[in-house]
Amino acid sequence: MSSPAYAAPVPSLPARRKRDWGRVVRTIAAAAVAIFFFLPILWWMLASIKPTQEILSVPPKLFGFDPTLNWYRVVLGNADPTQFNVETTGSVGRGSGGSTFFSLPYLRDSAIVGLGSTALVLLLSAPAAYAMSRFAMRRRKDLAFWILSQRMMPPIVAAFPLFFMFRQFHWIDTYHGLILVHAAMNAPLAVLLLMSFFDEIPRDLDDAARVDGATRFGAFLIGLNLVKGGLVATAVLAFIFSWNEFLLSLVLTTGVIRTVPVASSTFTTAFLTEWGYLAALGVASMVPIFIFILLVQRHLVRGLTLGAVK
Amino acid sequence: MANVEQVAALDDRRQALAGIQHSARRRSPWFLSSDRPWIWLLPVVLLLLFIGIYPFVYNIWNSFREFSPMTGQVEPVGWANWQRLLQELADPGSRLRSALMTTTIYVVAALVIEFVIGLGIAVLFNSGIWGGIFWQSLIILPMVVPPTVAAVMFKVLENPEYGALAYYLQNLGITDKAEPLLGGTGKYAIAAVLIPDIWQWTPFFVLILLAGLKALPTEPLEASQVDGATSWQTFWSVTLPMLRPMIAIAVLFRLVDLLKVFDYIFVLTSGGPGTKTEVLSFYAYQRSFTTIEWGYGSVLGLLILVIAIVVATLFVRIFKVSW
User: Fold this and answer.
1) Distance in angstroms (rounded) separating the CA atoms of residues A22 and B128
2) Which of A23, A205, A258, B102 is in Cβ range 3.0-4.6 Å of A263 for a Cys bridge?
3) What is the pLDDT of residues B115-152, one digit of tens each?
4) Band of pLDDT at residue B289, cut at 50, 70 and 90
5) What's the domain range around A284?
6) Is A256 a domain residue?
């Protein structure tokens, strides 16, 4: 007789034999591993409140340094970097390409592009995902694979043609240009992921709605209403991928618009690297993303595999 | 009683649905009231043409032209760029051959290391520990750090003079003063660019394999234990084979992304020292944007795309990944 599906998972044998000691040891090991992976982030967070000589001292100190908020004052508060000469010896107060260390504009640009492209890709992908989930389609599998294959396009292959197209259209350094590109980049994710969410709604619901006199569009809206959780998860992932995207943003802008990843890369010049500013900007750009991702953790596996793993 | 409540709830729901339907009927745009799928698919297909098909076609067209520094114009060159590709492929000492080799080493090393460590951690996290969700939340954070930011972080950590990681590795006797992680003759340069990759993407395997482990049926495991198998035997001959579809999907996604790797190399080493860490993407980038050989850059871009599609398709066939 097979055990029912709702039975509690059976702990592995050692757990049953040695009970709690084994569990304690394994928990400590798991904690150690997780903390080990967190260490670089912790170190970076500490670096953002350390003076330069402390950032650059080995071994790194967890405690016992004079914390400073100067990096944040410049990066988020537009303080004059030259007044903190002690920390920025040799700095000319600017990054390569004339970028300022004041980073609110970069965060703003990244946010505009991220939110715009997420809204656009959801708007365009949701009907497609719905159609692929609901309509009788002979080549549904092929279509899904074709959409998936678009994800294989290396950004470097797309970057060059897009650069020329953008120059022709005068789209370099425009929000709508980057929004369009990032939306296109996230389209495979959005379509396949939303499709997997639509697939979970029973078809009867559509049929019932249509019998009641709803149009296809009405049934679609009802469906959308039922996959709200999936929409949020898709939106968060699309936003994160746009927020982190580097190469296309690098090639399609010249500095009038700078997203955070591109701006970070300008904080290292040929002569010196502004570690403090980099750390402060890094933390300011990571923390919101951490919060988002923890909010949709439940759908993360499905999202990362484009709906292949439920 | 319960029935009455259920009916009332159902009624509420119906009314809510009717409300949505009503407003939907009024605002229903003509192009979405259709039952023809292509109308629904058109917007997204147009979007994909823009980033998928257009660059592909452009690169083919561009591969028959080249920027001439003498005239400052782009001029038709016939098959010259493709001949150059064949020559580079045939010459064992060429930059392209070296880039192919570097990419292969990078991809294989990253896949093997990330998979093995990821599987180990997933099994550990699945072994009935306290606070599993908390540790899992902690370990997924590296995945969402922007890759450029991660690369910059490790650029400091691996710096031979003041990097913490470089310091510890040297104290452990793994690297030495003459051959640090970054710099020197570049003995460990590949490891230096692999480290941020491994840090960011091992959690990806942990997450997917953990989901797989949690979804496994328990009966075969119990049966194997009843039959007196050691936990190692059970893992090797029961758990692992059952986990195969999840492993295949995780490896496929990493494989496709690894073939495109660019950010870490751009930030950490710029392909150096020499061309020791120059992967295909970076080589194509150099040709297109640094030495301004646009046409040849297009040829290299197409080569990467073909490799990615061939590898992914073969993988899907061999490991029978289904959608």
Assistant:
1) 10
2) A258
3) 999 999 999 999 888 988 899 999 999 998 999 889 98
4) confident
5) 103-304
6) yes
pLDDT digits over B189-238, tens only?
Answer: 899 999 999 999 999 999 999 988 988 888 888 888 888 888 888 888 88
Question: Mind listing the pLDDT tens digit for each residue in A149-171?
Answer: 888 888 888 888 899 899 999 99
| Cβ within 8 Å, pair B44-A187 | yes
Task: Tell me the three state secondary structure of residue B66.
Answer: strand
Tell me if residue B183 falls in helix, strand or coil: coil
Residue A96, in any domain of the structure:
no
- Chain B touched by A282 (CB under 8 Å): yes
Q: Do B140 and A297 touch (CB under 8 A)?
A: yes
CA distance A116 to A248: 16
Number of domains, chain A: 1
Q: Which of A129, A158, A165, A159 is nearest to A144 (CA)?
A: A129
Domain ranges of chain B: 94-318
What are the b/e assignments for B261-287, b being 16+ CB within 10 Å? bbbbbbbbbebeeebbbbbbbbbbbbb
Using a CB–CB cutoff of 8 Å, tell me whether A273 touches chain B: yes
Contact B124, A29 (CB under 8 A): yes
Q: Which amino acid is at B48?
A: L
Task: Strands of B14-85 (E only): list them.
Answer: 65-68, 73-76
Q: Which residue in the set B40, B130, B302 is minimally distant from A27, CB to CB?
A: B130
CATH assignment at residue A171 = 1.10.3720.10
Residues 56-75 in A contacting B (C-alpha not used; CB under 8 Å)? 56-60
Least CB-CB distance to B219: which of A2, A37, A265? A2
Q: Computed over its alpha carbons, how large is the radius of gyration of chain B?
A: 26
Q: Which CATH class is domain B94-318?
A: mainly alpha
Test B144 with A247 for CB contact under 8 angstroms.
no
Q: What is the mean pLDDT of residues B170-174?
A: 83
Which residue from A310, A243, A129, A78 is spatially nearest to B323, judged by alpha carbons?
A: A310
The CA distance from B148 to the nearest CA of chain A, in Å, is 6
The answer to whether residue A52 sits within a structural domain is no
* A215 CB within 8 Å of a chain B CB: yes
Q: How many CB pairs under 8 A join A and B?
A: 332
Is residue A94 a part of any domain in this protein? no
Residue of B nearest to A289 (CA): B144
Helix (H, G, I), strand (E, B) or coil at A100: strand
Q: What is the sign, positive or negative, of the torsion defined by CA atoms of B233, B238, B241, B242?
A: negative
